[in-house]
User: What shape does this take?
Amino acid sequence: MQFDILTLFPDMFTGPLTESILRRAQQAGRITIHLHNIRDYATDRHRTADDTPYGGGAGMVMKAVPLAAAIRAVTANPVPDAPVPQVILLSPDGELFTQAMAEELAQQRRLVLVCGHYEGIDERIRTKLIHREISIGNYVLTGGELAAMVLVDAVARLVPGVLDAASITEESHSDGLLEYPHYTRPAVWEEQPVPPVLLSGHHGEVAAWRRRQRLRRTLERRPDLLAHTAAQGLLTPADLAFLADLGWTPD
Ligand code: ADE
Assistant: This one.
């Protein structure tokens, strides 16, 4: 999968994209990440990428001309199987990013991510060149760069071969439940023993215990998520019986 990131601050991406799992995924050729500096597409002497807003008001607006030139130059360079890549603007006004959205985006061959900055981008870019807007949460960042890094991280780890499949299928949110608690050596730490079932060697009992832990945790921490998971038919009769014992029933 190819990510093209259009930004005024390409240096912000060193570190998050060049360490750990994302570094290995790039070395293994599972993902490629291209950074494009929007300022390189500004044609004036000062390479101006922003300007004051028409009508007045605070802050600066990212100019249409360099941004359009950047998006067009990047998308004019097609990769096999992705002739028309999705162009996504990271913005606090976008659809809220979720695990389901990450799974959907991980099916694409290529994503073009535009990082907004200053007070926003010229609206005409939105209407003409942006296919989708995504927000990573109901808060305002200084720009779309950190949001783009979050999106790349969440999507890239779902690309086949980046992680081993088991760690994805059992994790928080992937099937509407939070994760079970994890333990590793030592068996007792500061008077706290590991739950004995995990030392029992009974795979069936371990799996049942983990499932119950996931249900209990989701009920305690994210009852909203549990209601949604139940409505999607993802809970077994045994799950529902266990939850009923804890006093929870679906609406
Ligand atoms: N840019 C500024 N705030 C943002 C947010 N919450 N999500 C995505 N992009 C942003």
